[in-house]
Structure formats: C-alpha cells, structure tokens
Amino acid sequence: MSYGNFRRGGRGKRRTPGTMNGLESAFSLELTRRVNAGELLWWRFEGITLKLAPDTRLTPDFATQTPDGEIVLYETKGFMEDDAHVKLKVASASFPFRIIVVKKRAKKDGGGFTEEEVK
Length: 119
Hints:
The protein is α+β, with helices and mostly antiparallel strands.
C-alpha cells in the first residue's frame, strides 16, 4: 500500500510514511487495551483512506470496528490546523463512520486521552 509522499509529523517534523509518532503510539496501546477488553474487534493504523473531493483525501490515523459492526475512525492531534478541521467535518458529513479526534490529556489533569466526536 502506498502512503504517498512524506507527511509532516507534529511541530513540523517529517516522519516516515506508515510509522507512528509518539501520540499515535500511545493511543495504539489504548486501542489494544480496548480489543483485549472486548470493546473493539480490531484496529488498524492508517487502514482507510477517504476520498473527499478530486485530489483531496483523508487518511485517519486509526480505523476500528466495534463488536456491533460499527466502523469508528480516530484522528490523533497534538494541535489542529484549519484544513484538518475542515477535512474531518467534510468526512463526517459524507461517510457513514463515526470520526473521533483524540488529544492527549496533560499529566496534571490525570493523563490519558480526551475524545471528541466530529459532527
């Protein structure tokens, strides 16, 4: 599977396509915990690409499936640029998937993650 050109990681750093950054790695552990607990059937990193318009695509960080068959897409963000926000809104309105933005919660706030569904 081709991931195209290099994508920018957090804070302007380039990352190798198909490899996780720190936030993605941390959230993958949470998804694995959810699979082990029976809350999810599976997850895949960059497993689905959505075509939003000609030459405009969105590859959410994680695709998952719940035990009742629902596909839920997760996008991890340290910060969100305007274009990413627009793409997520368009994808949410155009496809029958739940899309959730995941951010890391500060240690002083108990750590873990916050999740907000895109509507």
